[in-house]
From TrEMBL:
CDD domains: Tetrahydromethanopterin_reductase. It comes from Tamaricihabitans halophyticus. PANTHER family: 5,10-METHYLENETETRAHYDROMETHANOPTERIN REDUCTASE, PTHR43244. It comes from the Bacteria. Residues 11-235 form the Luciferase-like domain. This is Luciferase-like monooxygenase. InterPro entries: F420-G6PD/mer (IPR050564), Luciferase-like_dom (IPR011251), Luciferase-like_sf (IPR036661).
Amino acid sequence: MVGDYGRKLEFGVFATPDAEQVERLLRVATVADERGLDLLGVQDHPYQRRYLDAWSLLATIAARTARVRVFPDVASLPLRQPAVLAKAAASLDLLSGGRVELAIGAGAFWDAIEAMGGPRRTPREAAQALTEAIAVIRAMWSEERSVRVAGTHYALSGVRPGPVPAHPIGLWLGVLGPRLLAELGRSADGWVPSSSYVPPERLADMHARIDEAALAAGREPARIKRIYNIFGSITAQSHGFLQGPTRQWVDQLTELVLEYGMDTFIFGTEGDDLNQITTFAEEIAPAVREAVADERAD
């Protein structure tokens, strides 16, 4: 266990970009916005024929909502050229009044990426490309007259960056390996693991790698946001981790904050169940905020 970083808590929903369920998907966005959730994340799998394009969907959601912030969870870097990705994020941030964050990943499902015309990268190449992409994105969001970034996979050669985002967009990484966890500690603003890949017992070691690199770079680890994609079901009876009644959810999420270092929870439910999302927003999120505030006050 790593303990509490003391960060502000946020809650959101993990929406499935199913092209055959457009009206339900837009309803999920409306519910998230109206019920006070902070974030809405959308998977980015361009090679998945059933899925809508993530950026088109995020733009539509931003236009139909008033307060919820949107982000790709996470953008597939091998199919998203980082300079253009930075411009897209900055543009949507301006158009939405500062309601965009950016989460990126090094890549997965390499057969599908290659089939769509993207590069097939080794783990080392993927890590190097992501590190270079971070520098490119930061440069494209700067107010410099022109910027240069040297790189093997991505480079800038005197391009004029812009537009500058409406607010300091969070640059979050969906990474798991030690090399990229260290890079996250050095240069990123947040970490986005999923409970299906990283159960609570694995979090401490990964936090430690991030924190060690952050301290070595002169950064305070508590500056780094810890976003957890969580998948489960709110049910009458307990069936295990995040499978049970509201009280169990409150207790387990509170423990994830105070003992396991997470501060933001993005809820994915089977079939984008609107009742589950509403319960999460109206009952679970406020109760977790209250429980954590009480513990922090002691």
